[in-house]
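S1.2 Input.
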Amino acid sequence: MFDWNLLRSGPFANCTSSPLAQVENLIVRSNKAPIFLPDKSGFLAIVSGFLSDKLQSLHHPPPQPPPPIKPIDVVCISDTHGTQPILPQGHLLLHAGDLTQRGTFSEIQAQLTWLSAQPHAHKVVIAGNHDLLLDASFRTKHPGRWTEAKSSAQPIEEEVLKQHMTEGNLDWGGIIYLQDTSTTLTFGDRAVNIHGSPLTAQHGLCAFQYPKDQDVWSSKIPPSTNILLTRGPPWGHLDSVKNSGCPFLAREVARSRPRLVVFGHIHVGNGSEEKVFDTVGRVHEGIAAGWVGWGSLAKMLVAVVGGRAIPQKWRRRLYPTTYANAAVVEGWEDYKVKNPPILVQI
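S1.3 Output.
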């Protein structure tokens, strides 16, 4: 019998990228405790990723349910940063955070007044990492950062400071604000459940952020959620070539399978795409982001064979999950409107 300890000694001693370390890391990975690939360019990572992509390309996804007779037009925007782009008509308006540049009272109120005046029947908003006023915990922990933001907004903020106005004085009009909460909206005979969260992975000293290696998403999205409104993208979905999204959020989306996921934060990732989370889709996502190991390829292979062998009419119909990075501005400093709002029908 081969002695695996030989690979733990000699040139591979204390080396986390040794063949054995990569094998062990891939095998022990589970859905409950994701351990991400130590080296995305490693041999096993490349092979498992290649095979997963190949199986995904061979897969016949399940049929979709018939489209609704009266679809709901959802207008998606994010990262307006104080701008007021022209919005298309629709039934539901969603804003995925970063209404402002500095997060002061006057900036946020200006955006709320603009959004409230829009003709959409329902308007739902979450905060972003720039919207400091809405994160009381952040302002308490980092008073210097908050003072800096207010000072940079002078003189427009002078009257606000004189009157000691806080987030409690904001006029939200008819806007629904979600902060790790949900709401149910009615459109004719249809009810739509929306869950919203401002949380995003740490980048700089900003509001509503968590350490990148911390899982704040496990079992967070209610199972009845139709639309998920988040600040940042799930890993691998419209999160730029650097894959700046959150892998924990990606895993939670694959578990809960909302019909629509709207986010922003990564301006250059603007756009939309779809993913079907049947067995093949979930395993493919898990291997790419690193929460399942190469052993799941066997499960994926069986599902691919089954999908090609079983007639479509006998298979369970599934809606795809639509991802929309709705950031409307370009760049990180000039905040010029570049991208039009994204319109999705559900």
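S1.4 Remarks. Residues 43-58 form the longest helix (16 residues).
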